[in-house]
Amino acid sequence: MSRQQQSTIFSKIDNLDINHEQIRDEMVKDIYDTAEEIAERNIASSEVEKESWGEKFDTLLTSKCLGFPMMLLMLGIVFWVTIVGANYPSAMLAKFLFWIEGHLSNLFVALQAPEWLHGMLIKGVYRTLAWVISVMLPPMAIFFPIFTLLEDLGLLPRVAFNLDNFFKKAGGQW
């Protein structure tokens, strides 16, 4: 449809004192009515639908009685797995990184590097990075995938639902 035709139609509509929004609303209403008629004719549904496991799980996790204990248990397990699970990789990573530190120190001695350079680079920068990496990387590598899984499963919104009243009482929400 050309712009001239559109302007002609809209000017005729304006002369009829019909609101553009009313026309749009009527068209949308007709589309929805037609869609409902088509759906009623072609979709069969049973009267009694069984509650899915997700709905049962949702009811259990958001209940007033079991919601908080389940939430604390779930987050406690995540915390425990993160702490206990990170011990072994952290120890192995520290052992490996400090093994490298020994060889780097030997290299600096063999190159007759000044003590201040050895102290700054190996005992300062490298040792600090080795400690940070060996202590922080394994817990983060365990915690964040588990936390992402909990979020993808929809458990974190349920935790937020359980904590909603406490946030309101604390003034965190209006």
TrEMBL record:
Q: Name one GO molecular function term.
A: ferrous iron transmembrane transporter activity
Keywords linked to the UniProt accession: Membrane, Transmembrane, Transmembrane helix
- What InterPro entries does this protein map onto? FeoB_GTPase (IPR050860)
Coiled-coil residues: none
An example Gene Ontology CC term for this record: plasma membrane
Question: Which regions span the lipid bilayer?
Answer: 65-84, 129-150
Which named protein is this?
Fe2+ transport system protein B
